[in-house]
Write a structure and sequence with these properties.
The complex is a heterotrimer of chains A (98), B (111) and C (121). With 98 residues, chain A is an alpha/beta fold. Chain A is 31% helix and 21% strand. In chain A, strands 4-3-2-1-5 form a 5-stranded parallel beta sheet. Chain A is globular. The longest helix of chain C is centred in the N-terminal third of the chain and has 12 residues. The radius of gyration of chain C is 14 Å and the shape is globular. The chains are: A alpha/beta (98), B mainly alpha (111), C alpha/beta (121). Chains in contact: A-C, B-C.
């Protein structure tokens, strides 16, 4: 299953809840969700700890738009819009967390 | 938004003729609404209309036709809990027409 | 029912503060007409949607909570509340206006994974 997160981890518990509740699979960070995948953010350790259970991806155009294209933490895969489409088609279900 | 005039008083309705303020409802309005739907109210019609009002009072929604049919069967007897019976009374749809007469909004999911 | 799909509605927002809870409920009622296998999950502030005794007169907003009690008439009987979310808000099963199944996070995650369609509100 693909979980799409579009909220900043610093203002919303969406990422927390997804990491705590979801059974595993792919996570794609988009829009303000991309802040979670930046080096030095408060969410970095939490995201790293979840990497055993989930494969984490980030939508690069959103990260670059926010001036953080060079801060992507290790272990997170960078995808473009084509990669976004592949993720949705390679998973049977997909949940866009609000 | 539109207005209807019943027994010398003016009431607001939406563009499809459903009453805006539930609290405005009275039997004169019901009869007026029925007339615009070409329905002559009988005891059987009132039974359904009153049932709908009670259902709304309890759950704050107008039930979908399928739910209404089942619930009527339970409350008023199995012979009345059928589409044939309800459509016999309200030919253009018990949801649409009976709700309008009962002063309720159109049922959720009713197209 | 062999071609029925498993639909899960994931509710994570408190009622009244935003429109999500009401919108979700309306979509659920509409979906019920299509005879699918529908589950409702309540996570985070979504558990507040089911709190008994909501009185909305003072905020001049429609109290839509009675409609959760009508879900049974719509053959929607699978309501799941996440235990951690409930406990964190000082609530117990007795606080809810309908019978629910309380699940731990892990069980909830597993159930989510078994769905064909997951809609988030």
């Amino acid at each position: 299953m693909l979980h799409i997160i579009n909220k900043s981890p610093l203002t919303s518990v969406t990422l927390d809840t997804c990491l705590n509740t979801a059974a595993g699979g792919d996570i794609l960070l988009i829009e303000d969700g991309v802040y979670a995948a930046t080096r030095g953010s408060a969410a970095e350790a939490q995201l790293r700890a979840a990497m055993g259970k989930f494969k984490v991806h980030v939508l690069m155009p959103d990260l670059e738009a926010r001036g953080l294209g060079d801060r992507l933490m290790d272990g997170v895969s960078a995808v473009d819009y084509g990669g976004f489409v592949d993720l949705t088609s390679n998973n049977k279900t997909c949940q866009s967390w609000l | 938004m539109a207005n209807i005039e019943v027994a010398g008083k003016t009431y607001e309705t939406d563009e499809e003729g459903y009453l805006i303020n539930l609290a405005d409802w009275n039997t004169d309005i019901a009869n007026y609404m029925a007339q615009t739907e070409s329905i002559t109210m009988t005891d059987q019609h009132w039974e359904v209309v009153n049932f709908l009002r009670e259902y709304f009072e309890e759950y704050q929604i107008a039930p979908a036709v399928r739910v209404l049919t089942k619930a009527i069967g339970k409350k008023l007897g199995a012979e009345k809990g059928t589409s044939e019976y309800l459509y016999g009374l309200f030919p253009y749809g018990p949801g649409k027409q009976a709700c309008k007469i009962a002063g309720l909004p159109k049922p959720t999911g009713c197209i | 029912m062999s071609d029925a799909k498993k639909f899960m509605f994931v509710n994570r927002k408190a009622p009244y503060g935003t429109i999500y809870a009401l919108e979700s409920l309306e979509v659920v009622l509409i979906t019920a007409a299509f005879d699918q296998d529908v589950s409702l999950a309540f996570l985070d502030d979504g558990v507040y949607q089911l709190k008994k005794g909501q009185q909305t007169k003072g905020i001049e907003t429609k109290n839509f909570s009675p409609a959760y009690r009508a879900l049974e008439d719509y053959d929607i009987e699978k309501l799941y509340v996440e235990k951690e979310a409930m406990t964190a808000r000082g609530l117990t099963e007795e606080d809810f206006l309908v019978p629910v199944t309380v699940l731990g996070r892990a069980e909830m995650g597993k159930l989510m994974d078994e769905q064909d369609v997951v809609l988030s509100f």
